[in-house]
Amino acid sequence: MKITDTVYEIVKDAVERLGYELYEVQYQKEDGNMVLTLFIDSPNGITLDDCESVSRTVDPLLDEADPISEPYYLSVSSLGLDRPIKSDRDFARNLDVLVTAKLYAAVNKKKEFLGKLVSFDEESYTLEITEKGRPAGQMTFKRRDTALLRPYIEF
What is the model's pTM? Predict the structure, then answer.
């Protein structure tokens, strides 16, 4: 079993008891150090205090289970507003949300599309395309042809 899967199983219930969803676990080298990052979410968003609370709760669980033999840093983070849409769970959360799709290859001479996510299945998704602020019809894209799909954030 991968380290990330093992850690997920160790901390998932504790994170959920605190009222958060454990979305993803990553274990990777950052600036020469190994970092274990737990990504959490909640309907009300995530604050720094939320991350601290989860960290304090899971740290003793990880110390006791000792799933990682080398030194590492524990990090707890929110997913961020512009997190990529990858899984069915991500797609479901973003239905009727304005998203940006970046494709590997151009379609109609374009590689980037803006539109509202209106439907999806395991192989594709459909956007209600917006061009120059106006509806421009619906387009369906294959998931495998998409380099990046994320919510559109207007600043």
Answer: 0.69
